[in-house]
Amino acid sequence: MAADVPAALGLLREGTLTVHGRLTDASNAVLYCTAELDGVTAPCVYKPVAGERPLWDFPDGNLAGREVAAYEVSAATGWALIPPTVLRDGPHGPGMVQLWVEPDPDAPELLDLQDPAGPAAGWLPIVRAEIEGGRTALLVHRDDGRLRRLAVLDAVINNADRKGGHWIPAADGRLYGIDHGVTFNVEDKLRTLLWGWAERPLPEDAREVLGRLAGDLAGPLGERLAPHLTPAELAATGARVAALLAAGRHPLPSPDWPSIPWPPL
Ligand SMILES: Nc1ncnc2c1ncn2[C@@H]1O[C@H](COP(=O)(O)OP(=O)(O)OP(=O)(O)O)[C@@H](O)[C@H]1O
Ligand SMILES: [Mg+2]
Known about the structure:
3-stranded antiparallel sheet, alpha+beta, 10 strands, binds magnesium ion
């Protein structure tokens, strides 16, 4: 997928969309589709704006645009953490269309519940939680470089919903983030499971990428984001990047906002 992003974007933008079904457990309308162009077909999801459930803390009718904005930031990092995503018209009106990622059923688990005395080697703590029988367990995620990049991306886009179902390990060994409708708020709404690196120094490659983003946001990336965000949200994105660079560390949870999605999956 990562190898032919321009072709995927063309297919998603220009291809004929056919709806095959609805993902029933989703809170918004999420339609499983195929896009077909010049004999090439690819599975995708289509989330029509008309199917967006209104939220108290985000303006109506532009979650789809936020998904595209999140994709643009991911693409600008060079880390390709979000599958190609476009805004286009479809059978149920304008919406976002994103390439489908087939989950790898053999991929190792990235979350676990462990003994509260833990975590085990190779795992990082998220939070202690009460489980059945009144026992306490430690919720942990793997100390995985792909998750760490996702944590940096989420800090930039201010992702309010990075639960465990919102990353998909693909058969090519890559990890893809999905569901970025609640992002880019001007308030700190970072809600994620990926707190294992909180306050730790950012890795060198993350600092390099953030430095690049700072310039890009003031230029071509900013222009690509502008149709989807308010000027204040665009400015806040630049401010988050600047704050991350100045601190040189992964962020801490906000005291004013539930920082862990619950249930975690
Ligand atoms: N690009 C994708 N590739 C593969 N599966 C996807 C993709 N996008 C969404 N899905 C599947 O569809 C489900 C619902 O999508 P999504 O989480 O984006 O919608 P939602 O309405 O916000 O749902 P929820 O409120 O349950 O989080 C996901 O949990 C995932 O299983
Ligand atoms: Mg979801």
